[in-house]
Design brief:
Helix content: 40-55%
CATH architecture of the largest domain: 3-Layer(aba) Sandwich
Oligomer: single chain
Number of strands: 14
Order of helices and strands: EHHEHEHEHEEEHEEEHHHHEHEEEH
CATH superfamily of the largest domain: Type I PLP-dependent aspartate aminotransferase-like (Major domain)
CATH class of the largest domain: Alpha Beta
Number of helices: 12
Bound molecules: pyridoxal-5'-phosphate
Largest sheet: 7 strands, mixed
Structural class: alpha/beta
Length: 360
């Protein structure tokens, strides 16, 4: 099968070195070799999350949503304030509702950031809220949410701040400690540049007591998983080969440095956006809301997403659709993973060809 350049928002292209890690010898997860691997990964995740010893990391077998569900069910005591402006905010809401957890919701248009004064008003009016829940980078559009300003409110009103940074960690500055984030969710198969199947939660340790009491699920209780992992174990069978790959992908991220990767992605996103605009296409979001990894673009006049998708796929590129009402007139292009400026240049050349109705 032809290697595709993945311009979808994960899973991403990974390096040969990460792929090769998959081929390490089979091991048993009850042996010391596994403990060594797990300890290394947890330590490296702390390094790339830039947190000190007030924090710990729990690694879960399961995609990003598993960690979202683990975080929600383990953290909220009584009531959450959910701030949402996209599909992943909706997913948070579905999880909160499924577990019958009380919530107050502030909803905003997909192309706008939340109104901070409304967030503050909610916190004043509803003092029984214990946790603020928000998505950092809404992959629905690529919008950056103001975790710094909401984090400041969480500190002032002494609330737990729970953040989905599945699309943020590795490509944006999350500043977990500075932004008072108590629980932060990330995943292996986006900007960390590894395979899908493993996700993780960065936890401020003083929340572990709450997590011990919140026994809403068996598999996903973060305290139980933490306790096992502190002993170098996993309660259930982990995705061993995916963990091997994650270990190497984390080495690569630490070698590149998180700042280096952020700058690389930012450079690729700028190059992509300038090229798209040169071709006469418009971007969905105002520049100040745009993330370093996801770009929503209005479709060229008279061209459907399906047409564009199929032409790109014939030429080795995967692009992604817009969601909800945006699926009729926008598409998404992401620049996460082991891709280069040359790949984006080729993407832009192809896009020009398709717009002009020429044959490749
Ligand atoms: C912001 C965000 N949160 C959560 C998820 C869910 O991750 P997964 O599909 O790995 O369960 C995604 C997936 O794209 C995402 O973009």
């Amino acid at each position: 099968m032809q290697r595709m350049i993945l311009l979808n928002p994960g899973p991403v292209n990974v390096t040969e070195r990460v792929k090769m890690a998959w081929n390490r010898p089979e091991i048993c997860h009850r042996e010391s070799e596994f403990t060594e691997l797990l300890n290394k990964i947890r330590k490296k995740l702390k390094v790339i999350s830039d947190v000190d010893d007030q924090y710990s990391v729990v690694v879960l077998t399961g995609s990003g949503t598993a960690s979202l569900e683990a975080a929600i069910t383990s953290t909220i005591r009584k009531k959450a304030l959910l701030i949402k402006n996209g599909v992943y905010g909706d997913r948070f809401e579905e999880i909160i509702s499924t577990y019958n957890i009380e919530k107050s919701v502030l909803e905003y248009p997909w192309t706008e950031q939340p109104d901070i004064s409304e967030v503050e008003k909610k916190l004043i009016d509803e003092p029984d809220i214990d946790t603020i829940v928000m998505v950092h980078i809404e992959t629905t559009t690529g919008l950056v949410n103001p975790i710094d300003r909401v984090g400041e409110l969480s500190r002032r009103y002494q609330k737990v701040f729970l953040v989905d940074s599945v699309t943020g960690i590795g490509s944006e500055y999350v500043n977990i400690m500075k932004n008072n984030i108590g629980v932060c969710i990330g995943t292996s198969n986006k900007s960390i540049q590894s395979f899908p199947g493993v996700s993780f939660v960065v936890i401020k340790k003083d929340l572990l007591n709450i997590m011990k009491e919140n026994k809403r699920t068996v598999y996903l209780n973060l305290y139980m998983n933490y306790e096992f992992q502190e002993r170098g174990q996993c309660p259930f069978t982990p995705a061993l080969q995916t963990l091997y790959a994650l270990d190497v992908a984390l080495d690569e991220l630490i070698e590149e440095k998180v700042e280096g990767r952020i700058e690389r992605y930012k450079g690729l996103a700028n190059y992509l956006r300038q090229g798209v605009k040169r071709l006469g296409l418009r971007l969905l979001l105002s520049p100040e809301y745009q993330s370093n990894s996801v770009t929503s673009i209005f479709l060229p006049h008279g061209i459907t997403y399906e047409y564009l998708h199929d032409r790109f796929k014939e030429n080795g590129f995967i692009i992604y659709n817009g969601l909800g009402n945006l699926n009729k007139n926008t598409f998404r292009v992401c620049n996460m993973g082991d891709i280069t400026k040359k790949d984006i240049q080729r993407f832009l050349e192809l896009l020009e060809t398709f717009i002009k109705g020429k044959k490749v």
